[in-house]
C-alpha cells in the first residue's frame, strides 16, 4: 500500500476516534449545561461562529423590534409621498388629513398594512447593515490599534456607506413588497391586488412581472440606504465617541447620539427615499409603459411637475419615523451587544 493511502487510513482512524470520544463526552456536556446553564450559554456565545454571527443576529432583532413600533408612521409617510403624484398645485395632504382619511374609511388596521413585509425587510436589511457595520468597525479598530491611532470619522462614514449599500441590495425585494402592499389601498377597489402577505406579494410580483421586477428601484434604494447609513451609523458612532468624556450616563449618551443620528439620516436620505417609493409603486400600463424610466428621470419629472420641495414633503413624518426607529434599533442593538459580549 502506498504511503499516501496509509496516511489517509490513519487520518480516518483519528477522525473516527475523535468522533467516538466526542459522543462519549456528550452526556457530561449536557449534564454540565444543566447544572450551570449560565456558563454553558456564555461558552456558546464565545464560540468563533457565534462571535461572527452575533452582530447580524442582534441587528436583525433590533430592527424588527423598531419596525413593530414604527409601522403606522411608516405607512402614513408612504401615503404622503404618493399623494398628488404628477400634480404641482392643489390641496396638500398632511399627516392629519391622511390619518383621518384612513380612520374615516373604517380601516384603522391599514396602518399596519405590510407589517409582514416590514419585518422581513428588517430581518434581511437591518441584519445585514448592522452586522456588516459592526464587523467593519471591529476590523478598522483592530487595524487602528495596531498602528497606535484611532478610527476617524471618514472611516466610520466609509463603513456606514458600504454596509448600507450591500444590505439594501439584498433587502430590495422585501422593500418593494412593502411599498406595493402599502400603496395598494390608494387604488380603486377593482384594481387592488389585495396581497394576503409578503410571501403572496413576492410570489405574485415574480409571476406577473418577472423575478427581475423584485429589484425595481434598486439603484435609488441602494443610494438611499448609503445616505441613510452615512447619517445614522457614522454620526451615531461619532456622537457616542464625542460624548464619552462627558458627565452624561451611558443611557443618555446613547439616546442623544441616536437622536443626532436620526436627524442626519432623515436629511440625507429623504429625497432618495421619495424617489424609491415612486419607482417601486409604479406598475406597467396596458401598453407596457411606466411613469418613470429610472431614478434620474423620476428626479427630473418630479422637480419639473411638482417642484423641488416635493422631495422633502413629509420631512417631519419621515423624521418621526426615522429618529425613533433609529433610536429603538440602536438602543436595542447596544443592549443586545452588552448582554452577549
UniProtKB/TrEMBL annotation:
Solcar repeats lie at residues 50-139, 151-242, 249-339. The keyword Transport applies. The lineage of its organism: Eukaryota, Fungi, Dikarya, Ascomycota, Pezizomycotina. One of its GO terms (cellular component) is mitochondrial inner membrane. It comes from Rhizodiscina lignyota. It is a multi-pass membrane protein. Belongs to the mitochondrial carrier (TC 2.A.29) family. GO terms for biological process: transmembrane transport. Keywords: Membrane, Mitochondrion, Mitochondrion inner membrane, Repeat, Transmembrane, Transmembrane helix, Transport. This is Mitochondrial carrier. The chain crosses the membrane at residues 318-338.
Amino acid at each position: 500500500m502506498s504511503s499516501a493511502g496509509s496516511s489517509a487510513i490513519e487520518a480516518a482512524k483519528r477522525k473516527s476516534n475523535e468522533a467516538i470520544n466526542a459522543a462519549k463526552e456528550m452526556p457530561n456536556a449536557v449534564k454540565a449545561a444543566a447544572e450551570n446553564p449560565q456558563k454553558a450559554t456564555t461558552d456558546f456565545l464565545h464560540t468563533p461562529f457565534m462571535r461572527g454571527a452575533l452582530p447580524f443576529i442582534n441587528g436583525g432583532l433590533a430592527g424588527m423590534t423598531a419596525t413593530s413600533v414604527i409601522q403606522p408612521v411608516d405607512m402614513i409617510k408612504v401615503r404622503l409621498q404618493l399623494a398628488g403624484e404628477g400634480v404641482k398645485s392643489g390641496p396638500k395632504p398632511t399627516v392629519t388629513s391622511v390619518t383621518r382619511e384612513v380612520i374615516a374609511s373604517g380601516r384603522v388596521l391599514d396602518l399596519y398594512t405590510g407589517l409582514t413585509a416590514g419585518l422581513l425587510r428588517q430581518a434581511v436589511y437591518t441584519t445585514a447593515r448592522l452586522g456588516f457595520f459592526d464587523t467593519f468597525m471591529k476590523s478598522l479598530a483592530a487595524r487602528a490599534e495596531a498602528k497606535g491611532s484611532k478610527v476617524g470619522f471618514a472611516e466610520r462614514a466609509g463603513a456606514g456607506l458600504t454596509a448600507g449599500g450591500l444590505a439594501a441590495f439584498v433587502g430590495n425585494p422585501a422593500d418593494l413588497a412593502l411599498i406595493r402592499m402599502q400603496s395598494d389601498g390608494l387604488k380603486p377597489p377593482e384594481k387592488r391586488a389585495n396581497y394576503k402577505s409578503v410571501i403572496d406579494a413576492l410570489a405574485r410580483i415574480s409571476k406577473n412581472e418577472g423575478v427581475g421586477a423584485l429589484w425595481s428601484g434598486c439603484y435609488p434604494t441602494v443610494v438611499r440606504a448609503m445616505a441613510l447609513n452615512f447619517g445614522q451609523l457614522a454620526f451615531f458612532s461619532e456622537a457616542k465617541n464625542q460624548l464619552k468624556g462627558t458627565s452624561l450616563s451611558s443611557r443618555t449618551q446613547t439616546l442623544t447620539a441616536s437622536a443626532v443620528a436620526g436627524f442626519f439620516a432623515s436629511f440625507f436620505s429623504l429625497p432618495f427615499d421619495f424617489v424609491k417609493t415612486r419607482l417601486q409603486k409604479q406598475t406597467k400600463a396596458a401598453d407596457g409603459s411606466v411613469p418613470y424610466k429610472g431614478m434620474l428621470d423620476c428626479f427630473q419629472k418630479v422637480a419639473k411637475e411638482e417642484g423641488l420641495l416635493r422631495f422633502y414633503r413629509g420631512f417631519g413624518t419621515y423624521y418621526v419615523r426615522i429618529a425613533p426607529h433609529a433610536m429603538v434599533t440602536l438602543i436595542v442593538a447596544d443592549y443586545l451587544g452588552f448582554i452577549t459580549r
